[in-house]
Design brief:
The protein is an all-alpha fold and 416 residues long. The chain has 17 helices and no strands.
Length: 416
Amino acid sequence: MRDLRVIGLLAGATLVKALAGLATAKIIATSVSLGQFGQLSQFMALTAFAGMFAAGGIAPGVTRVIAAHKGSVQERDWIGVITQIYMVTTVVMALAVLLFSSQLSSLVFGTDDYRWTVSLLGVTQALVGFCGLYQAFASAYGRYGTILASNAAGAIAGIVLLAVLAHYGGYEGAAIGVVLLPAMPGLALVLLKLRSLPGKVKIDRKSFDFAKVGHMFSFSAITLAGAASITLGQMAVRDLLGAVSGWEQVGYWQSTIRISDVYMQFVSVFLLSYAMPKLAGVNDAELRPAFAVIQRKVLLLFCLGGIFLWGIRHELYRLLYSAEFVGASGLLVPQLVGDAFRVVAVSISTLFMARGTIRVSLVYEILQGILLFVGTTLLVHHYGGSAPVYAYGATYLVLMVGMVLAYRARFRLTTK
């Protein structure tokens, strides 16, 4: 029963974020022109990128080390290191955003008139980073209700704020709302947990453990590698497919992977918030049985969700997009097959991260975009618009086999 409650809380937290994203797009689309929507979409991408590396991007590492050391003497040492990293990276990032605000404004908006709006990122990323770290601690301690509460409160406050700013401030107001929206869950956490924070934070000004800092930043490298590889790989595939098969096929493919991104987001949250702390906290003898249980759960959830999506695929494309996109529903099945391979591969990658074996996960992240582009290049002249989803399936089949072999080599002997 507890596992069902945890899954429900994590599903609720993910659903809230997904609905907030849809509401954000709807509010902006109805408040500005099409061209302005395109610029604000770029600005949203910039805020998302900044948020990814708020607090140094160490949140997955926080979950791992706290789950592995909670209740021990080392726990306080790790909390001290995490606090140091948060403070230093927050100041550095704020100064960098302020220093390059004019250039970033010109890059996104075509003018430096919005440099002060961009400068707000320097403030909001502090709250985004705080939220990411606090939720990572909550995952390590099994307090999943905190994650749902902060996401829900922040999403409601953020959407209301964005709607008001867009209504009364137009394009400029919407731009400010885009900056403030991601910070609202962090602000909600500060208000909810203000009394308990001072007792949990430890700042040691006399020491700086470079070994621990390096270990934490290795998780940032995984985040950066995955984001860069997948983003650049998809951009290259988009341009290739557009040149060979036309941009209508690109639209079909993009609409399908957006649906995939939503339910794979839940898989990611489940693995990082539920699976990682469990796998980090067990001893070697219990590791393989614990991992088998987790993998069965995540595959069962994925299969149930996949069957549901397949059953409503035509209505889903009509609801999310329009009747013009129903033709893309034929891509959903091969996409789901690829996602099934991906679930197995990423669950093993999570296991390696939980046990502190970072290099395997890093290689996995880097190869995703590379293999996707190579596969699409080989298939696009034969399969046209279906090439990216076929290449996607082949990519994660290869990665799944590779991760299974790595798992057998790393854990077969040590966990008997």
